[in-house]
Design goal:
Order of helices and strands: HHHEHHHHHEEHH
Shape: globular
Radius of gyration: 19 Å
Helix content: 55-70%
Number of domains: 1
Number of helices: 10
Strand order of the largest sheet: 1-3-2
Number of strands: 3
Strand content: under 5%
């Protein structure tokens, strides 16, 4: 059974979805409430400086971590279907796929980063102790933050939109827009303008296509994890959402540069082509154009 059709394995009705969405929203409120209480008790340490960026990063991830159990509980006990159904349509999660996407996009990001640096406003920012702490936080927590976004958007909501619209292509587009709107509060939008929303929506489109055409989250998770970990560890800038003790500090004035367009227009389509060949995707046209039956 296709990934988008996994909703058919459990309870699929309006009331169940309303209960699930209410639970997920409640988890967001609870996560932010915990964060607010924590901030209230430790306000004096929350001004971003050179010694507490990883601490701030951990705090920012708390709401995301609260959402994961809410989604999985909803799938298991409200929709009464296997938790695996929001991760993959395969009999078991394919870790090899995840690591393949991780390595390929990691190499691509390294190449794009190197060729996009002119060195003018790039500062070597390596601080051994702080960087080791950042590595630990990034390796342990950022994959969980990515998993939250993937199972929420490419897993649960994508399948819900499939059930609602009965059309794979429509579900792909709606999921991508929702994913983009989820990032509208990011500081990058403030600094770069709403044109950056095109980047979020089109990247969401790419990730949703990966999920739909490959029938699982494995490739999207691998791509998304290495993307966020790379950004956290290698280059930080004053205007990005995650302020970290990365290897480099980029003080270049904010702009939506050519490398973003290369990512959207060349790298992501090329990855779709590569994965289509590696995994021999079949029925692409019917998945995107035919109604779900």
């Amino acid at each position: 059974m296709q990934f988008i059709k996994q909703y058919k394995k459990g309870t699929d009705n309006f009331g169940t979805y309303m209960l699930s969405i209410a639970l997920i929203l409640a988890s967001v409120v609870i996560g932010n409430l915990i964060l607010a209480i924590w901030i209230g008790f430790d306000a004096q340490n929350l001004e971003i400086n050179d010694s507490n960026k990883s601490y701030i990063l951990v705090l920012k991830l708390i709401p995301a971590l609260a959402v994961i159990p809410a989604i999985l509980f909803s799938v298991k006990f409200l929709h009464k279907r296997p938790v695996r159904s929001v991760f993959t349509a395969r009999e078991k999660f394919d870790w090899k796929r995840l690591f393949t996407a991780f390595v390929i996009w990691g190499i691509c990001m390294t190449v794009l980063t190197v060729i996009s640096f002119d060195g003018t406003d790039l500062i070597w920012n390596f601080q051994p102790v702080l960087f080791v702490i950042l590595v630990i936080v990034s390796v342990l927590l950022l994959p969980l933050q990515v998993m939250m976004e993937e199972i929420l958007f490419r897993g649960y909501l994508f399948q819900a939109f499939g059930a609602l619209f009965k059309h794979g292509g429509v579900a792909v587009l709606v999921t991508s827009v929702f994913f983009g709107m989820f990032h509208i509060g990011n500081p990058e939008v403030t600094h770069l303008g709403y044109q950056v929303m095109a980047f979020y929506i089109l990247s969401g489109l790419f990730l949703t296509l990966l999920t739909h055409l490959d029938d699982g989250l494995e490739l999207a998770l691998g791509y998304h994890i290495v993307n966020n970990v790379f950004i956290a560890l290698v280059v930080t800038s004053p205007y990005q959402a995650l302020q970290t003790d990365a290897l480099y500090l980029d003080n270049t004035p904010p702009s939506f540069g050519w490398h973003q367009w290369i990512t959207l227009g060349v790298a992501q389509p090329l990855m779709l082509f590569i994965f289509a060949k590696i995994y021999r995707w079949k029925g692409i046209k019917s998945k995107l154009l035919a109604r779900i039956v």
